[in-house]
Amino acid sequence: MILLFTPVKLEVIYENGLKRIRIYWWSLHLTVFPPKPAKKHAAKTKAKKENVREKKRELPFEITSVSDVLRFAKKSAGRTLKSVLVERFNFSLTVASDDPAKTGILFGTASAGVGMLLPLFEDLFRVKERTVNVFVDFSKDTPSLAADALIAAIPAQILLIGILLIFHLPVKWKKRNKDKAVSVS
C-alpha cells in the first residue's frame, strides 16, 4: 500500500525518433524502450509482430489536434493533473525545407502553435523547468525535432487520472457518434 504513494518518474527522450523511455522508482530504473534484443525465437517473434501490425485498432474517438487532447484532459481530470510534476521539459524544433519562403511560413506557423500549446500545457501540469525553442534553418532540407521530459507522479494519482479519463471517454465517443449521425442525414 505504501508503494502506491511513492513517486514514480518517467523519462522520455525523442530526437528525430524515439530514443529512450525509462521509469524510475526509488533506486530502481527500468528501460522500457528500446527493448533488449531477444536471443532466441527470433522467427516466431517476427511473425507475431507482423500479425499485430495487420490488426489495426481504431480509437473510439477522434484526436483532431493536440489542443483538443489537452482540453479534454483538463475537462476530465483537471485538478488531479495538477498533482503531476514535470521536472524537466526540453523541446527544440528546427524548421527547414527546400524552399526559403515555405520555410519562413512553416517557422511562423510552428512558433504560433508552440505559443498556443505551451500555456495549455502549463495550465494542466506543474512545470518546474522548461526550455522551448523553435529555430529556422534555411540551409537544410529536412526539419528536426528533439524533446526530453522527466515527469514525476504518485502511482495512486496515476490510477485516479486513468479512471477519470476512462469515465469521460464514453461521453466524448457518444458525442462523436451523434455528430456523425447528424452529418450523414
Short description:
By secondary structure, this protein is of the alpha/beta class. The protein is 45% helix and 28% strand. The protein has one domain (2-35, 65-184).
pLDDT < 50 stretches: 52-61
Order of helices and strands: EEEHHEHEEEH
Percentage of β-strand residues: 25-35%
- The whole-number mean of residue pLDDT values reads 77
Report the end-to-end length measured between terminal Cα atoms: 53 Å
Principal-axis shape equals globular
Q: Please report the total strand number as a whole number.
A: 7
SSE-based structural type? alpha/beta
| Radius of gyration, CA atoms, in whole angstroms | 20 Å
Sketch the major β-sheet. Answer: 7 strands, mixed
Helix content: 40-55%
In total, the number of domains comes to 1
DSSP summary: helix tally: 4
Characterization of the model:
This protein is of the alpha/beta class and 185 residues long. It has one domain. Helix content is 45%, strand content 28%. The protein has helices at 42-54, 66-81, 100-124, 155-184, and strands at 8-15, 18-25, 28-33, 85-95, 126-127, 130-136, 144-153. Strands 1, 2, 3, 4, 5, 6 and 7 form a seven-stranded mixed sheet that branches. β2 and β3 (28-33) form a beta hairpin. α2 runs parallel beside α3 (100-124). The longest helix has 30 residues, at 155-184. The chain is globular and about 60 Å long.
